[in-house]
């Protein structure tokens, strides 16, 4: 018999923290906290396997689920001393989702389930608090209707607002028992009117309705989007937690709150969080009332007057501090905690490894290692490589003038400039058109996630430091200012107003998420300084990684940036980029138009000095580090204009023969340029071009050797080779040119000759190629194109469809297809090394900066990865993590 249901509470549990796959993160940690003896309201978890079963069996449950739930529910009733559905002594429960990896706000929770017209009276009598009972009931009706019955919150808010207006009341806490009773009656009438059915009164029907809704929510659009963004497989499924209710809304000695054991923005080792007295569940994060700080220090820092929990509830606060301290040492990581105080009694409702900014992740990892809580290796595994991106980008120049529009809370650090948009869909559209936008909203909800992702930054008028906007923005690494209370948004007009000043959609603003400022216009930015914790952790990473990290760079600026970020050489210098410069393109065109070799050589002689000086600069910057130079790769027609008018203009300005130009352009036209006359096929047809390039590389190397006293390490790379004989021809061309150059100079440098492996045939016949090549660089962009037969430039039209239909799990141009393309790389590695043991191999496609692809390179045993300069630190960390997995099995947890 399969165990579908795991109980927890009352000092013990069926499961524990290691069972996240089965119980989901929330369920596993509730079980763990129960076993630790912490005060957890008892409940049970329906496993993720039920979710998998549900979707595998036409949305049906396993046959014995009902009996197991009944048994678990009876146990809870025993511990709590209440009965589900009883009128005199009703047990109420929450129904909570909980996937393996935390998906905050993705799935909806229903609180106070079990209430109906009769049990609400029982609850009123039992608690001696009618107001509380009806407050709970109205919350339940709203949540249940929304989550299970699909009736939007706004319907209920409208009714509530009408009542408040009529009563002249502005905050919910001012409403009396009688008020709530009337509101409940109106709510029920609303449900019946809108849905044609009365609100369900049977607690068991309510329970199964809510359980079904949790499973259903696994497949809603926002959950799908979040999974795609965070790489969470659909097959994981969610668990459902059913837990006895505790009430933070039972008056002034009750409260609910959220806490982080360390600051999630900065990583500072200080308890951090917010709470609300006489409130329930989501009130703190929903931004309906402004939450208060947990600690006195926090309150003073924020300049708040409302008492902190430390001051208002010193005794419970003391217990709380002890519990969260225990949780952090137990989990050995910063915890994100939910709790409730019911009439002076503390209850723990959730703990998980807290989401954090990159800055905070670095500090916490380095601090925990320094505190001896974790090892350096674990420290390395705690930081998500891709998150470093947040730190590698510019911040506002402290010297730049700031015209402050308004200030809010510093919800997520970083700076961003963009056009104002008010709508998530609009943000996504604008971003697709290449516009930088700032999403400005009253508050955000899970429906806005795609827009938040598309935006450069987020501003909300309402909500605190733990509001949806703040939490999600920090997780995504988007700068965010929340609770900018002066902002009045007029959606219809497409404007927001701050103290009489109007800002329109499309206007440029800048935000400083670290300070909580919203600023006029674009503000100057500066490059980040990578010192402190960043440097410490990268130092640790460099100690453990085996893979070398190089950069793809051709301009001096890129090369300098790459070195600054710790690149150990250049893995791909694309020489054609050097041809496009205004000063050279004329000579390049002259070469293309030449009728014969002599004409081409004459033009090439004009380009040669430019090429040489480019390489001198690069070799100087990369002093003593290897530089892989790829010889000319694109088809020649890319260098001449395409339209008749452009060609006429060019001919006129350059004194060229317009007819000849057009004729040549026609000659060069190809049906399928990606598979046409390009790569080494140019070098074979026009050897003088490659000769000039090889000469420029080696002459530059000789010159730098003289001036610097350190010999550069040029690696001359021939693109798009498919045949052993091609490689042989190119090898001889290169060596003969080198010989001539060295003889003329009376000096020499060491150099390597190799090829880019970017055609399936090259991978399959790597043994032939290796006879003439000294290194391979896997050009995985083209290798992916040629393996799939998909042109990257044309894939946009159908790739999304493939991903939506689950045929492609990822874009193979972003994440290496480790099966197909990966097989070719494995074969090439094997066959290449069989011919030439120890020959150097690396990867230089976009994939060189993608952490999971880097892990693949580690497995295959390549020597280096090469990526864009800004991804070099990410690659260094990813390479270290890959080495750790290989060496000691220390892996990074998905839900950090
Ligand atoms: P999420 O994953 O969105 O945080 P949760 O299931 O954790 O959803 O719950 C939403 C809110 O309801 C949280 O504030 C949580 O603390 C509160 N809550 C959940 N279950 C209970 C319960 N049994 N008693 C009191 N509050 C609860
Ligand atoms: Mg929660
Ligand atoms: Mg290529």
Are any ligands bound, and if so which?
adenosine-5'-diphosphate, magnesium ion
How much is the average pLDDT?
92
**Main structural class:** alpha/beta
* Main pleated sheet: 8 strands, mixed
Question: From the alpha-carbon coordinates, what is the Rg to the nearest angstrom?
Answer: 32 Å
CATH topology of one domain: Dna Ligase, domain 1
Give the number of helices.
Answer: 34
Q: Order of strands side by side in the largest beta sheet?
A: 15-25-24-17-18-19-20-16
- According to DSSP, the number of beta strands is 34
CATH C-level category of one domain? Alpha Beta
Q: Which second-level CATH architecture of one domain applies?
A: 2-Layer Sandwich
Shape label: elongated
CATH superfamily of one domain: ATP-grasp fold, A domain
Strand content: 15-25%
What is the terminal separation in angstroms?
34 Å
Helix coverage percent of residues?
40-55%
Poorly predicted ranges = none
InterPro entries: ATP_grasp_subdomain_1 (IPR013815), PEP-util_enz_mobile_dom (IPR008279), PEP_util_AS (IPR018274), PEP_util_C (IPR000121), PEP_util_CS (IPR023151), Phosphohistidine_dom_sf (IPR036637), PPDK_AMP/ATP-bd (IPR002192), Pyruvate_phosphate_dikinase (IPR010121)
Cofactor: Mg(2+)
Organism: Brevundimonas terrae
Keywords: ATP-binding, Kinase, Magnesium, Metal-binding, Nucleotide-binding, Pyruvate, Transferase
């Amino acid at each position: 018999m399969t165990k579908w249901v795991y109980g927890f509470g009352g000092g013990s549990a069926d499961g524990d923290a290691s069972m996240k796959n089965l119980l989901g993160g929330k369920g596993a940690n509730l079980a763990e906290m129960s076993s630790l003896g912490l005060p957890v309201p008892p409940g049970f978890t329906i496993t993720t396997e039920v979710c998998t079963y549900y979707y595998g069996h036409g949305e049906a449950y396993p046959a014995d689920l009902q009996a197991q739930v009944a048994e678990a529910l009876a146990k809870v009733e025993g511990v709590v001393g209440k009965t589900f559905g009883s009128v005199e002594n009703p047990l109420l429960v929450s129904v909570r989702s909980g996937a393996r990896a935390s998906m905050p706000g993705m799935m909806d929770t229903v609180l106070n389930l079990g209430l109906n017209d009769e049990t609400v009276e029982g609850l009123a009598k039992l608690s001696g608090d009618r107001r509380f009972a009806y407050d709970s009931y109205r919350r339940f009706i709203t949540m249940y209707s929304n989550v299970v019955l699909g009736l939007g919150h706004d319907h209920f808010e409208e009714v509530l607002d009408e009542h408040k207006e009529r009563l002249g009341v502005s905050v919910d806490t001012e409403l009396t028992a009688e008020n709530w009773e009337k509101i409940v009656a109106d709510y029920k009438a609303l449900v019946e009117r809108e849905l044609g059915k009365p609100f369900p009164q049977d607690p068991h029907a309510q329970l199964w309705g809510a359980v079904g809704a949790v499973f259903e929510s696994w497949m809603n659009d926002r959950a799908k989007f979040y999974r795609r963004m965070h790489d969470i497989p659909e097959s994981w499924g969610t668990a459902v937690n059913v837990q006895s209710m505790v009430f933070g809304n039972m008056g002034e000695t009750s409260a609910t709150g959220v806490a982080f054991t360390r600051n999630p923005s900065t990583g500072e080792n200080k308890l951090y969080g917010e709470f609300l007295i006489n409130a329930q569940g989501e009130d703190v994060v929903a931004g309906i009332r402004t939450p208060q700080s947990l600690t006195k220090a926090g309150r003073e820092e924020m300049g708040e007057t409302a008492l902190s929990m430390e001051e208002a509830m010193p005794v419970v606060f003391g217990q709380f501090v002890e519990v969260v301290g225990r949780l952090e040492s137990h989990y050995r990581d910063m915890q994100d905690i939910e709790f409730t105080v019911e009439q002076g009694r503390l209850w723990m409702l959730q703990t998980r490894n807290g989401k954090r900014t990159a800055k905070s992740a670095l500090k916490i990892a380095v601090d925990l290692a320094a505190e001896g809580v974790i090892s350096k290796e674990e420290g390395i595994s705690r930081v998500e490589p891709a998150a470093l991106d947040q730190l590698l980008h510019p911040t506002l120049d402290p010297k730049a003038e700031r015209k402050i529009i308004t200030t809010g809370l510093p919800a997520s650090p970083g700076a961003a400039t963009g056009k104002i948009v008010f709508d998530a869909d609009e943000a996504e559209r604008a971003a697709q058109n290449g516009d930088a936008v700032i999403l400005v909203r009253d508050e955000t909800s899970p429906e806005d996630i795609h827009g938040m992702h598309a935006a450069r930054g987020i501003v909300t008028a309402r909500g605190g430091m733990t509001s949806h906007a703040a939490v999600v923005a920090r997780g995504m690494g988007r700068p965010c200012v929340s609770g900018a209370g002066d902002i009045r948004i007029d959606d219809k007009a497409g404007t927001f107003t701050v103290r009489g000043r109007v800002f329109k959609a499309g206007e440029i603003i800048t935000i400083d998420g670290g300070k909580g400022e919203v600023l006029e216009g674009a503000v100057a930015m500066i490059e980040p300084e990578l010192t402190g914790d960043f440097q410490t952790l990268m130092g640790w990473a460099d100690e453990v990684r085996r893979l070398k990290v190089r950069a793809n760079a051709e301009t001096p600026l890129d090369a300098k940036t790459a070195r600054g970020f710790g690149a150990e050489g250049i893995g791909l210098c694309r020489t054609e980029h050097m041809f496009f410069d205004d000063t050279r393109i004329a000579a390049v065109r002259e070469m293309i138009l030449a009728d014969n070799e002599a004409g081409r050589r004459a033009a090439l002689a004009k380009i040669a000095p430019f090429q040489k000086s480019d390489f001198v600069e690069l070799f100087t910057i990369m002093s003593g580090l290897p530089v892989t130079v790829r010889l000319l790769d694109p088809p020649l027609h890319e260098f001449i204009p395409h339209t008749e008018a452009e060609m006429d203009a060019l001919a006129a300005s350059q004194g060229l023969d317009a007819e000849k130009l057009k004729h040549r352009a026609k000659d060069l036209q190809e049906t399928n340029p990606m598979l046409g006359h390009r790569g080494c096929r140019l070098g074979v047809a026009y050897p003088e071009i490659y000769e000039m390039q090889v000469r420029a590389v080696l002459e530059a190397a000789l010159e730098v050797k003289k001036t610097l006293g350190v010999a550069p390490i040029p690696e001359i790379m021939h693109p798009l080779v498919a045949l052993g004989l091609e490689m042989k021809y190119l090898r001889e061309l290169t060596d003969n040119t080198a010989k001539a150059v060295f003889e003329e100079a009376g000096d020499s440098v060491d150099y390597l000759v190799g090829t880019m492996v970017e055609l399936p045939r090259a991978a399959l016949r790597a043994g032939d190629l290796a006879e003439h090549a000294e290194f391979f660089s896997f050009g995985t962009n083209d290798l992916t194109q040629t393996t799939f037969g998909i042109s990257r430039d044309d894939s946009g039209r159908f790739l999304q469809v493939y991903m939506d239909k689950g045929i492609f799990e990822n874009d193979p141009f972003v994440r290496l297809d480790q099966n197909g393309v990966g097989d070719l790389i494995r074969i090439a590695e094997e066959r290449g090394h069989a011919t030439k043991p120890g020959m150097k191999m690396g990867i230089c496609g976009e994939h060189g900066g993608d952490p999971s692809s880097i892990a693949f390179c580690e497995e295959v045993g390549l020597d280096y990865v090469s990526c864009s300069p800004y991804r070099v630190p990410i690659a260094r960390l990813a390479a270290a993590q890959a080495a750790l997995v290989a060496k000691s099995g220390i892996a990074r947890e998905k839900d950090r």
